[in-house]
Automatic annotation (TrEMBL):
Subcellular location: Membrane
Residue stretches spanning the membrane: 28-54, 61-85
Membrane topology (UniProt): Multi-pass membrane protein
Protein name, per record: TSN36 protein
């Protein structure tokens, strides 16, 4: 169980690195931090529980049970925090994404993050491709198209033009 929780917490942290330009609130990782801490404690307590079982110590087993209950409460807390803050995180991410998409010019660091996001998540814009029509990049190019990272991967001759939305 400790190994599984460690994996989940580490996965969230690793995934966060790819999208940290979109998450300004560092507290979004609080549930992941709690899960990793619980995993470390679970590993140590599991070893103590095994030793108490081999020695058949009633006090050791009672202490083991109490600690397991504390761990359960911490896991429930992490779940509740994740559930409670999910809308806040969603709103913050969308606001930040609109800001980052607004800074897109095809050359800066934000542009490479946007391209990475669109290619790996197979999406275009914050909600859809029409979000690009309000960006400075869209208005400055004048060719009525979105970045090529919006193109579907199976479309070889995609130009990103808005009059061909089936390619996006």
């Amino acid at each position: 169980a400790a190994a599984g929780l460690s994996y989940v917490g580490a996965y969230v942290f690793n995934t966060y690195k790819s999208y940290d330009n979109f998450l300004q609130d560092k507290y979004a990782l609080l549930p992941a931090m709690i899960i990793i801490c619980v995993a470390v404690v679970m590993f140590v307590i599991g070893l103590i529980g095994c030793c108490a079982t081999f020695r058949e110590s009633r006090v050791g087993l009672g202490l083991f049970l109490a600690i397991i209950l504390v761990i359960f409460i911490a896991e429930v807390s992490a779940f509740v925090l994740g559930f409670v803050y999910r809308e806040k995180v969603k709103t913050d991410v969308q606001g930040t994404m609109h800001s980052v998409f607004g800074k897109y010019d095809g050359k800066n660091a934000e542009s490479s993050v946007v391209d990475y996001l669109q290619e790996h998540l197979r999406c275009c814009g914050v909600k859809n491709y029409s979000d690009w029509t309000t960006t400075q990049w869209f208005n400055s190019t004048g060719n009525n198209s979105v970045p090529l990272s919006c193109c579907r991967q199976d479309m070889k001759n995609c130009t990103g033009r808005l009059d061909q939305p089936q390619e996006l």
